[in-house]
Amino acid sequence: MTEPEIENLVRRELYAVAPDLEGLEIEPNETFRDQFEIDSMDTLNFIIGLSKATGLDIPEADYPQLETFSGCKSYISKRLRAPG
Amino acid sequence: MPSLGADMDAGTLVEWLKSPGDKVRRGDIIAVVETQKGAIEIEVFDDGVLSEIRVKPGDEVPVGQVLALIDGADEDSEPPPAETATKAAGLPSRPMDQEPLRTVSQPTADGPKISPAARRLAQSCGLDPGSITPGKDGVIGLREVEAAAHHADTTQPAGIDQRAMRNAIASAMARSNREIPHYYVTSTLDVTPMMEWLGAYNARQPIERRLLYLVPLLRAAALSLRKFDDLNGAFVDGRYQTTANVNIGVAIAMRKGGLITPAILDTASHDLQSLMSKLSDLVRRTRQGGLKSSELSMGTVTLTNLGEQTADALLPIIYPPQVFIIGCGQIQVRPWVIDDAVVPRQLMDVTVAGDHRVSDGRRGAQFLRNFGDLLARPEEL
Predict the structure, then answer these.
(1) Residues of A with CB under 8 A from a CB of B
(2) Domain limits at B85?
(3) Which listed site, A69, B237, B336, B342, has its alpha carbon 20 to 30 Å from B169?
């Protein structure tokens, strides 16, 4: 998956849990929680979406790495590159 | 029009899902009503036949007014039609609230007047009348609706009028502070056992079956409240009545501000997985519309959970006609003393508020002990 593809995927999954955010600019290093009042239920649904779209099994211990846009990008590309 | 909470004065009928002559059963969705809490599905509370519809789609109807008549199964008795209908709605109309009902024609704090044609157009465009700027005469006409449709605010979730919701919250909370003599009791609970158990449980589950920590909190609160008759029920017309089931209302925040507290009916009857799916479904329908009338009217107690990365504690305000509310602060690792040693533990400050007309702080304290004991043995939840 290319970097723009990953970016699109993250955006798409974020909008899926919070359709009202569509079109808003995302500050890459600020947490979704602080930027958009994403709560724990939204976060869980967002990560379920990422997991389904990428086929990655995302353990709960990794959730903190998925709190920002740039965190999501680097986590997904790292995991997709890693064998297994 | 059933009351869907202490903060509701009126609703606008959107559509009928049944026609005169149709048989209806308890629990059937009979109509959809637009309220300050979005589009709500109105349920029937008795079996019977829908005999007459009295309100048209687009009509704004004050709480307590008859929407439709349902002939009950017991034809021998002769209740007056209005009573039958009230029975069909099965919900108290404005419990213990002495304020006069507002009607459509009065200019209200909820917003300016709107012409019937403009209201219909606004509805067909999916616009909330409260979000439309009135014309120079203070009335919203077709022209204002058309202008608003052009500039439709796409960031606002469908069906929720932010200003109306704020007014609704303000009126319910003002009433609570005016009428309910609150007491508050706080305990710091060591929730390390629950969080460790949950971490291990979630690690064994596929991602769709993982639980939020709110779920064991809800389960423990429900099990505990079954033992506290005086904390679970409603104070109506100067009298308290306990309820057999514990229906916990969960405070669900809207992203643009405001909150709704729909209830999980008979909370204690659900295991953790079932509670998680109920909660997930409730959050989705709260934000997108589609809550059921029973979920808004039958809460017997409320739990409000601040959640991760928020603040340590809150002093919750009781949602009338309930008499008890549980407020959970964020969970944080802080120093704690166990066996004369200071150790880092995951702690949560829980504050409960109770109604002094019904119980005393001692009962709140007993609840907190019981709730904490259950959370200390999460594997038994």
Answers:
(1) 18-20, 22-24, 31, 33, 36-41, 44-45, 47-48, 51, 57-61
(2) 10-89
(3) B237
Give percent helix, percent strand, percent coil of chain B, each to the nearest 5: 30, 30, 40
* Beta carbons of B158 and B248 less than 8 angstroms apart: no
| Confidence at residue B46, expressed as pLDDT on a 0 to 100 scale | 84
Return the closest-CA partner of residue B343 out of B354, B335, B332, B333.
Answer: B335
| C-beta atoms of A20 and B157 within 8 A | yes
Q: Is B156 on the interface with A (CB under 8 A)?
A: yes
Question: The domain that contains A21 carries what CATH number?
Answer: 1.10.1200.10
B330 inside 8 A of chain A by CB: no
Domain assignment present for B172: no
Do the Cβ atoms of B14 and B57 come closer than 8 Å?
A: yes
pLDDT digits (tens, 9 = 90+) for B134-143: 776 777 777 7
Comparing CA positions, the residue from B230, B233, B232 lying closest to residue B95 is B233
| CATH code, B156 | 4.10.320
In-domain check, residue A28: yes
Query: Rounded to whole angstroms, what are the CA distances from A50 to B70, B175, B207, B212?
Result: 48, 44, 11, 18
Give the number of C-alpha atoms closer than 13 A to the C-alpha of residue B154, restricted to the C-beta side: 7
Under an 8 A CB cutoff, do A48 and B283 touch?
Answer: no
Alpha-carbon gap, residue B167 to B48, rounded angstroms: 36
Nearest by CB to residue B212, choosing from A20, A44, A59, is A44
CA B362 to CA B149: how far, in whole Å?
55
Structural domain boundaries enclosing A18 = 3-74
User: Could you report the per-residue pLDDT of A4-60, keeping only the tens digit for each?
Assistant: 999 999 999 999 998 888 888 899 999 999 888 888 999 999 999 999 999 999 999
What distance in Å separates residue A29's CA from the closest CA in chain B?
Answer: 17
3-state helix, strand, coil in chain A (%, to 5): 70, 0, 30
Q: Are B49 and B28 in contact (CB under 8 A)?
A: no
